[in-house]
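Listing S7. Sequence submitted for prediction.
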Amino acid sequence: MGNWTTTSRRHLGAWYTPDDVVGGLLDLAFEPVLADRRTDGVDAVAALRVLDPSCGDGAFLVAAGFRIHRILVDLGVEDRRARRTAFGRCVVGVDVDPEAVDACRRRLAEAGAEDPSDRVVEADALLASDDDWSALLAAWEAPSGVDAVLGNPPFLNPLADDTSAGPERAAALRARFGDAARGYANPASLFLVLAGRLAARRGSVVSLVQPLSLLATRGAAVTRSTILDSWGLEALWVAGEHVFDAAVDVCAPLFRPYSPARGTQTRLVVGRDFDDLGTAHSPGPEDVTWSDLLATVRSVPDVALCTGGVLGDVAAASADFRDQYYGLAGHLVDAEFGDATTPRLLTAALVDPAHDRWGEASTLVLKASWTHPRVRLDGLSVGMRQWADARLVPKVMVASQTRVLEAVVDDDGACLPSVPLVSMVPVDGSPVDVWGIAAVLTSPPAAMVAARRHLGAALSSDALKLGARDMAALPLPAKHGPWVEAARAFRAASTATDPGTRHTNLLACGHSMCAAYGVRDAEPLLAWWEGRLPDR
């Protein structure tokens, strides 16, 4: 996109789209539209309108223009006229950056457009009003909407200081897109909402490159449900590797207007070779995430489970936040030995399945490295002391952003959890103790369910990120006897003094939990789960 520096591109969230990715996405999304129009003749092809609402230097528009040009020539249109039509009429774009707009106009002119100045417009596509868009569509001779919205909108990290929207822009986006723009929504997902408004309701297609987090994060939940209210997810491309200078895992959903006749299957395509993996059941507006599709792409097992209730029936899940994290400032000590007034502090980095590595490895807390972090309870604020007292009870502490859920038991309530660990405490009268809760959380069936519900939400595209509510919603097994055996095996793993014995007992726990969930052929699930355990 022009000669932008890495810093300016990062600030705008704009990154080059490789030619092979552009070509593969056009094959997937645009060729079927072209094929339909070709059968209707020259006028139908010439009437096509392809919009890139964040066009950059025009990679998608130029590539789409060449395809339209080829069809027109094949239908007998003279080459120069075909170029004027394809590049000067059929493709249109918007971009907020004037340099990008100039570059796009130059490329279209070089390809054959006579005057592309009115076809590529400098504007903020997300904040343009309905009246602004109506005027543009009318000028582009597409008053009822464009036929294809294709492109690679900017990815902006809503948590990063140099890419997050300022307060005025954030407020304007909320006014324009409502709940879809609230919280930590990536603005890239708002382009999907916009595209759904701008595309025609018949014979059109929407496909925009998106961060993989679109499939699972809470910030994109409203976008997912909104677009599926009137559009069907016909295909999903998952890159499977980093394809931009930015280290972002990406995908590209392909939407067509919803129709019962299209069925309930989504085609899955992966990699820069756009390998076809077949189909999977399409999500609907009611589905919380689209992780099930990504899990199918990643070959996550999908086996039937016998369940009875959810983890929240027997345990209360709690997550701590910034106040608790920063409330520890000035109250940490690095001491191998302590007493009840200086409980150990456990971080996610120190949690492995059935084993905490406190004292074995250093960990970062409040930008400092600690080998034996403890909290001095004396001197804590009233609120922090109340928090500590509530956490110093028998519990299970669970780390996510990991390839399986990793749980350790604090049987005597002598540890405090650091953000982002989730604490699971047996509810009063629960028939299940901390060992049974930990066996569920660490089990192969729980990892499978977590992946099919939440894969794509973590920083790593292959990791699992679950909050307290998500863990509380994990299913419980229906068979009590094997569950008891699994809890014993987890306890044996937790007290093992060497990694080999711990691993053996974890495998025994996994086998018993598969039996507790009634898994008929457990070996593939066990093998998948064992392959994801931390290799320490």
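Caption to Listing S7: primary sequence and predicted structure tokens for the chain studied. Residues 499-516 form the longest helix (18 residues). The chain has a mean pLDDT of 93.
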